[in-house]
Amino acid sequence: MSQDAFERCNQILQHITEDTSVPRNIRRAAEESKELLSKDDDEPTVRASTVISILDEISNDPNIPIHARTLIWNVLSELESIRH
Asked: According to the UniProt entry, where is the signal peptide (predicted)?
């Protein structure tokens, strides 16, 4: 279950990292989140919580484009379902 969710999240995060209209700091956070989700050495809930905190912080960035914010919110809701 959580592996499928991580895969969907990674696809969305990959899309954000490749989008040049998204500021570099946000693309960097998306890339870092992708790497964290891919690590199998931590519990899925720990990985989800760590990525949620990173993405929650950048989702409030005033420079983030609306479409990227929406994608991040999609990832956050997907990860929230794993955490609970």
From this structure: none
Q: How many whole angstroms separate alpha carbon 24 and alpha carbon 20? A: 8
CB contact set of 61 (below 8 Å; sequence gap of 6+)? 23, 25, 26
Tokens coding 5: 């969710």
Residues 8-36: pLDDT tens digits?
999 999 999 999 999 999 999 999 999 99
At residue 77, φ and ψ (nearest 5 deg) are: -70, -35
Helices marked H in the chain = 2-18, 24-38, 44-59, 66-83
- The secondary structure of residue 23, as a DSSP letter, is -
